[in-house]
Amino acid sequence: MADDLQEKLDEQLRYYRARAPEYDAWALREGGFDRGPRERAKWFADIAKLERALDRFHPSGHVLELACGTGQWTERLTRYADRLTAVDAAEEVLDLNRRRVGDGVRYIHADMFSWRPTETYDVVFFSFWLSHVPPERFGQFWSLVRTALAPGGRVFFIDNLASPEAEALDPEHPGSEEGSVVRHLSDGRAFRVWKVLHRPKQLVADLGELGWDAAAHRAGHFFLHCRATPRGDR
Questions:
Q1: Which distant-in-sequence residues (6+ apart) come within 8 Å of 206 by Cβ?
Q2: Burial (0-12, 13-18, 19+ Cβ within 10 Å), 224
Q3: What is the pLDDT of residue 2?
Q4: Where exactly are the structural domains of the chain?
Q5: Domain 2-230 in this protein, CATH class
């Protein structure tokens, strides 16, 4: 079972390495992700809600971004952080991130499920990553987050919302098991990836069982944002 899970995670990483040059089309609703001006307007209105939530959270101090991707949110974090460290398992997206953001960010090429930080951070941030964490690794991932936090540290993340609107906007082919989808690149290659969508109330309950105090909220039709701190860490 462990080997089977690792094979699936390896396939997910291969997908994101291959998808790097076309990843931003999803965020910008371009090409095959363009569903017309009406849906695009709703999408960007919800993105603006995420940006305002991040601004209210104000991720200052030494900030760690996990699964940083091509840098759309890394760029925003530089506006708040005194120091910023960005980690990703895909070399290709790290290259794109460097080109977008430029100097001032420390980059680490490492797998999210095996990397261990050598220092602690005031804030841990990740975007559109938790939904790619299989349920079997949920607790392990949050253990990593806890290890990365300095005393009094905070967590903020954003992700897709489990909602009919989001599913209608981006229909995907179900994978061979619950929690996975099959995604296609523009060249026709297909990959199975994890896509475990969360609802705010259940997410807060799940984190509570792991010892986190969390507050999660919808951001319009498509997204959620959540802040969390280790319970008892005041």
A1: 138, 198
A2: buried
A3: 64
A4: 2-230
A5: alpha beta
* pLDDT tens for each residue of 56-92: 999 999 999 999 999 999 999 999 999 999 999 999 9
Sign of the alpha-carbon torsion through 80, 113, 179, 23: positive
Whole-angstrom distance, CA of residue 183 vs CA of residue 204: 28
8 A C-beta contact, residue 68 and residue 45: no
Q: Are 59 and 81 in contact (CB under 8 A)?
A: yes
Label residue 67 left, alpha or beta by phi (over 0 means left) and psi (-120 to 50 means alpha): left
Helix axes 91-101, 2-19, angle to 10 degrees: 40
pLDDT value of residue 3: 77
- φ, ψ at 114 (rounded to 5°): -130, -15
Burial label for 51, CB within 10 Å (0-12, 13-18, 19+), is middle
pTM of the predicted model, to two decimals?
0.90
